[in-house]
Amino acid sequence: MPIRRLDPVLVDRIAAGEVVERPASALKELVENALDAGAARIDIAIEAGGKRLIRVIDNGAGMSAEDLDLAVERHATSKLPDGDLSAIATLGFRGEALPSIGSIATLEIFSRTKEATQGARIRVDQGVKQPVAPAAQPQGARVEIRDLFAGTPARLKFLKTDRAEARACADVVQRLAMAHPGVRFSFSASEAAGFDLPACAPGEDGLLTRLSSILGAEFRPNALRVEAAREGFRLEGFAGLPTWHRASPSAQYVFVNGRPVRDKLLIGAVRAAYMDYLPSGRHPALVLFIACDPHEVDVNVHPAKAEVRFRDAGLVRGLLIGALKQTLQGALHRATPTNGAAALDLLARRGAPQQGGRFSGQGAPVADWDWRRSPFHPDPGQTAHVGFAEPAQAAFQALGGDLALAARAEPEAPSNEVCEAPLGAARAQIHETYIVAQTRDGIVIVDQHAAHERLVYERLKAARAGRAAPRQALLVPVIVEMAQSEVGLIEEAAPLLAEFGLIVESFGPGAIAVQEMPAALKSADAARLIRDLASTLGEDGHAASLERRLDHVLATMACHHSVRAGRRLLIEEMNALLRDMERTPGSGQCNHGRPTYVELKLTDVERLFGRR
User: Would residue 492 be called left, alpha or beta, if left means φ above 0 and alpha means ψ between -120 and 50 degrees?
Assistant: First the structure.
């Protein structure tokens, strides 16, 4: 078959297959053009998920009639004045979006510049361009795409439902709105919820306002400010607290010079930075902006411009990991306040009255309950006592035995200085597992095992970094019998374990001898520790990175040495644990990513009891 030159319309339709994958792709190109034109307001409307109509109106610089005629020609653009692809400072640059869209749909553009006395319009119908004509149009541009993929109906079969396509269009607009908080965006669709994002003031507060309006009001109290710079690269944005995690990485937004990207290098760096804080299968929420010289990044490596390539990828990865780790460490004990709100909501729902006048709690009273028949009703002969006098409270002594088994309270009121501490003053231990502390304006409930486990883990990490972990020689070596395969795992990891002060040796077939223990774990069960370490090493496998295996070993050791649930603590020990948490990075969650404490504000508790 002889080689022939393809028809120009067919060429445009082939190009459209790369540029316009779905309606959201076409919308992205139009909004980027509006931003490049300096628009301060962009209004978007779609119908049928963008298949029937996509309309974008902006108040940017606009185009003259001559530029409008060239705008729908292939590879015609105003964004490369000197033709240097290594210094791209705009979102668009290829000059192929509009002609590609016009080849598979009906494209109509209205535009007027500030200097022009009248506007102009042009129409491209399935690749057939009509001449430019005068039209009434304010400054800026209005672009309408109708009947998308009418020229390539086979593509319609691969699109999702109108609702799904509309959500994809909304996501595209929201991503661009994050990077340009000074621009007002409005979005309306017949199949999805619309939104109107007003322009925000410049600065950190304005950016946080824009992000909270898109990601939800919970983002603001859970956001940590990130700011760092290195060798011409600058990183800014907000990272979510580790305890405010998600089931998928869909809430991770990264921008390079204002361009939203989904780069594997950057996502991998985020995963590495949070690896020590999140439970398995969970992902952080964050919004990060990387700014650099355009010569340091290549944005012309992906058809949809969704990926970039850095000249020094290692530098960017190191900057990202270092900045995020420093930010997370600076947060110390801070945890998401939504945990407390969720706890209060759960209590409110369980205590809400249901049908029949009953409450949902077990053993709750019925509506016609008479308090005078209560066995704890004070004796009428004691009514002379006023308020909470001791004789009137004597009836509650019948409960004393049961309560003593479950809780121990501190009789003396704490000082105001201790209550001013972030985690307050310990007042009681409940079920010998949870510490109840009083703060200046609320209550803190601490899981003593999870909190102490994190503290020990951080101490072991610090000892590992110092390469001088103190250890304690055992008077009699502990012999641990186990499967031969597990013995092999321990023997292979012996050099790593020695870094933490755990000295092990082979003791014949199917046995390991523990000669020395880390000083921090001297009271731990050596046999149980070795078996758990073998299980951890077996789960990681040989392909796991050294850093990951080290962290898992440390986590296992910390779990063995931490204060167990069921251990009774003195009030001094409880307060010491709270003060250590306030000084330790990452103490808001345990080694498994679960929260170590829940804070309840006094106003919320009062509202729960109907006092507000």
Answer: alpha
Angle of helix 204-215 versus helix 162-179 axis, rounded to 10: 170
Which residues, 6+ apart, have CB-to-CB distance to 611 below 8 Å?
none
Q: What is the DSSP string of 387-442?
A: SS-HHHHGGGGGGHHHHHHHEEE--SPPPHHHHTSTT-EEEEEETTTEEEEEETTE
Exposed / middle / buried, residue 368 (Cβ in 10 Å: 0-12, 13-18, 19+): exposed
10-residue mean pLDDT profile of the chain (612 residues): values are 74 66 92 94 96 96 92 79 70 79 92 93 92 94 93 81 94 95 95 93 93 93 94 94 87 92 87 83 92 87 76 92 91 74 67 49 50 53 44 44 52 74 90 90 90 83 69 88 88 82 87 85 77 75 51 67 71 91 86 83 83 75
Q: Are residues 244 and 220 in contact, defined by beta-carbon separation less than 8 angstroms?
A: no
CA nearest to 96, candidates 204, 172, 19:
19
Between CA 25 and CA 169 the distance in angstroms is 8
DSSP assignment of 167-216 equals HHHHHHHHHHHHH-TTSEEEEEESSS--EEE----SSHHHHHHHHHHHH-
Please name each of the domains of the chain with its CATH number.
Answer: 8-195 (3.30.565.10), 200-334 (3.30.230.10), 470-519+523-561 (3.30.1370.100)
How many other β-carbons are positioned within 10 Å of the β-carbon of residue 158?
A: 9
Angle CA(359)–CA(365)–CA(369) in degrees, nearest 5? 130
Number of alpha carbons in the 13 Å side-chain half-sphere of residue 229: 5
Instruction: Give the phi and the psi of residue 417 in degrees, each rounded to 5.
Output: -65, -40
Q: Is residue 309 helix, strand or coil? A: strand
Q: How far apart are CA 527 and CA 552, in angstroms?
A: 18
At residue 610, what is the residue type? G
Residue 560: how many CB atoms within 10 A of its CB?
18
E-strand stretches of 451-607: 471-481, 503-506, 511-518, 597-601
pTM metric for this prediction: 0.73
